[in-house]
């Protein structure tokens, strides 16, 4: 389990996270939703150590990540997979080399072992035969799948996904959603997905936290999402034409 307790983060005079507390359940897809600028991306980056928080606790299975020394943090980072919004593949490296990168960074495996792991991960995301291609030779959806393959290369306990459907067409977005959910359950990963895509929230999430103006405003399951009775959440949910079509009559 990942436990976030009363974390705060300020950039100059702008407090982005305000006393945020939430638990992310193990082996489940935990969705973080909210408007652009609400603080959800800062929250995600704080969880993986890309931002230093001002105060609070971030616990990975009861270990406070914030209090660890740098060398101790590396042990947790070895258990973390990260899927960035723009895939963040290295343009000058092949897809195979991209997937092998975290293995080069964090393991002492032989080249043969790393090659076999990369091959397995690429096959798992449906990219067999693409090993020697470069990112520029792949579609946006294929690049995203390659990034997922890299994210699971170390067989992580925790997977963080920042806007995984950004820039994808609806059909490809559904495929990526399905892949994230499959991998979460197949490997028992604690997955945290940052998104403003309500189709994703309704399709694959087990638990949802709504971030509003830097605060953890609502937390519940997707079954309770559409009837939360929370005004700010409802305003966010039904701001799109698609969600208007399924809006409950009493909302």
Structure description:
- This protein is an alpha/beta fold and 251 residues long.
- It has a domain at 78-188: Rossmann fold.
- The protein has helices at 40-47, 70-77, 95-106, 111-124, 140-151, 170-187, 198-204, 222-225, 231-237, 241-244; strands at 2-11, 14-24, 29-33, 55-60, 63-64, 80-83, 158-162, 190-195, 207-212, 215-220.
- The strands form two sheets. The chain has a six-stranded mixed β-sheet, sandwiched between helices. The chain has a four-stranded antiparallel β-sheet with strand order 2-1-4-5, covered by helices on one side.
- Strand 4 and strand 5 (63-64) form a beta hairpin.
- The two termini are 34 Å apart.
SSE layout and pairing:
Layout: E1 2-11, E2 14-24, E3 29-33, H1 40-47, E4 55-60, E5 63-64, H2 70-77, E6 80-83, H3 95-106, H4 111-124, H5 140-151, E7 158-162, H6 170-187, E8 190-195, H7 198-204, E9 207-212, E10 215-220, H8 222-225, H9 231-237, H10 241-244
Parallel strand pairs: 3-8, 3-9, 6-7, 7-8
Antiparallel strand pairs: 1-2, 1-4, 4-5, 9-10
Keywords:
251 residues; 4-stranded antiparallel β-sheet; 6-stranded mixed β-sheet; 24% strand; alpha/beta; globular; Rossmann fold
Task: Please give the number of β-strands.
Answer: 10
The CATH homologous superfamily of the domain at 78-188 corresponds to P-loop containing nucleotide triphosphate hydrolases
Shape: globular
Quickly name the level 1 CATH class of the domain at 78-188. Alpha Beta
CATH architecture of the domain at 78-188: 3-Layer(aba) Sandwich
The quaternary state of the protein chains shown equals single chain
At the third CATH level, what is the topology name of the domain at 78-188? Rossmann fold
Number of helices, where a helix is a run of at least 4 consecutive DSSP H or I residues: 10
Sheet having the most strands? 6 strands, mixed
User: Topology as H/E string?
Assistant: EEEHEEHEHHHEHEHEEHHH
Distance between the termini: 34 Å
Cα gyration radius (Å): 18 Å
Unreliable spans are none
Beta-strand residue percentage: 15-25%
Query: What is the topology, as strand order, of the major beta sheet?
Result: 6-7-8-3-9-10
Please identify the structural class as seen in this structure.
Answer: alpha/beta
Report the average pLDDT across residues.
Answer: 89
What fraction, in percent, of the residue positions are helical? 25-40%
